[in-house]
Amino acid sequence: MLKKLIQSIRSPLRRPRAVRTTPEVVGNHQHSLRREQFSRNAVNVVERLTKAGYQAYIVGGGVRDPLLGIPPKDFDVATSATPEQVRAEFRNARVIGRRFKLVHVHFGREIIEVATFRANHPVSEDDEGANNAHASRNEAGRILRDNVYGTLEDDAQRRDFTINALYFDVTGERILDYAHGVRDIRNRLIRLIGDPEQRYLEDPVRMLRAVRFAAKLDFEIEKHSAAPIRRLAPLLNEIPSARLFDEILKLFLSGKAERTFELLNEYELFAPLFPASAKALKDDPEYAGKLMRQALANTDERIRLGKPVTPAFLFAALLWPALPARVLKLQDRGMPPIPAMQEAAHELILEQCRRTAVPKRFTIPIREIWDMQERLPRRQGKKADLLLENPRFRAGYDFLLLRESAGEETGGLGDWWTDYQEASDGERRGMIRNLASQQEEGGSPAPRKRRRGGSNRRRRGPRTEGASSE
Ligand code: ATP
Ligand code: MG
Fold it and tell me: Which of the chain's termini has less CB crowding within 10 Å, N or C?
């Protein structure tokens, strides 16, 4: 019944707008791509498959980004060979994925992702066979398995955006353009292939991808592709948490995290990913917004400088503004401050993991960074020196500066630690003696007391470091 209803509503939209069955062929005098620009390994994979009698092209970001003068993150190959046929051609190949089977061909640290041409398999009343071992959808049309192979033309049609459906023919240095992708690159537009609503229903993660590419490439989301996003954003709640975690890393570690964050909020996609953080942002937009944006801006800066970044710092920052309300709630129930803080941290991370499966190797450092915030105010005796030796000191200190930059009142703790790191042994002893007379023990662990506007004191030494190295 429900299935029929959904189908009848979606019926007129079901067929995606026709993608050209013959591509526009963009010859090498009409574009700037030359085969030497591509990863040797990607070219080798394509040539090997072609020699074996299959069709093979470089596709996706590996064509799109070089057209824009951006070095691509990786290279994807599309081929008529099935995963098993691809594997048979390469010693260093592994078939991965279930929902979407593909082959990873390994060359040292570089992985070339080889995907077999797929056919769209639209829902239709006479197509009960769509729910078989190769393809299946749920009642809302979400694709659960996508392993129906097809022709190159079919493959172009099932790709997400026009700019991602450009196929580079390595031998002829030609681009095959099935969906006016070159035009959209010229006009800097992210446009879904086919009917936007249906394509988002098939795979809601495409909404995140639209935002990611818009931020990364500084493109606009074309208005018909943008229109349904806010309404369909809650569909992200149905996506497996592990896939969402992977997408979040791509969203925030692309070097354009701050812009991505703006777009996620604009399209109401942030709340389904970070429900508690979104609530904190709504309750106190000035403080929470400042802290989150600063953390993301620092991350972008580190990536620009080629410095390592860790998702733990990022998650610690995005979740931090959600902590105080929970700590207070537990304290209201009679729990003392420190256990309340511990319990709130535990609950918050657990909840976030249900949404986006954050692996243990990141949740542990998140807790450590937060624990550091309780420990950094306690500096008496040998404590300060012990803290300095703690492997998590640097991240904890950076996090403290981040909190201060968002306006949290810490009684000048960040400056104190900046000075302490630079001080001689003698000066350090003096600083600790001064503390004893100032009765500084016991700062606020969670961001409860704060002033607006942040500290204007000039800092010596390093500034907030964003997602610092693990
Ligand atoms: P980047 O690698 O820079 O993130 P990309 O465009 O190469 O960008 P990938 O995730 O590597 O993105 O995917 C490769 C190609 O596979 C895409 O360009 C697109 O054509 C297709 N694709 C990936 N995910 C989807 C999806 N969810 N729906 C439809 N097509 C997709
Ligand atoms: Mg790619």
Answer: N
CA atoms within 13 A on the CB side of 82: 6
List residues near ligand 1 (CB under 6 A).
Answer: 60-61, 73-74, 76, 159-160, 164-165, 203, 205-206
Task: Find tokens 């300095």 and name the residue.
Answer: 388
Burial of 425 (0-12, 13-18, 19+ CB in 10 A): exposed
Ligand nearest to the CA of 63: 1
Domain 275-456 architecture: Orthogonal Bundle (1.10)
Atom of ligand 1 nearest to the CA of 206: 27
β-pairing verdict for 102-107 and 93-96: antiparallel
Domain 203-270 CATH assignment equals 1.10.110: yes
d(CA 166, CA 180): 9
Question: Is the pTM here over 0.85, yes or no?
Answer: yes
pLDDT in tens, 380-420: 888 999 999 999 999 999 999 999 999 999 999 999 999 99
Mean pLDDT across the stretch 107-132? 75
CATH architecture of 23-187: 2-Layer Sandwich (3.30)
pLDDT tens, residue by residue, 338-386: 899 999 999 999 999 999 999 999 999 999 999 999 999 999 888 999 9
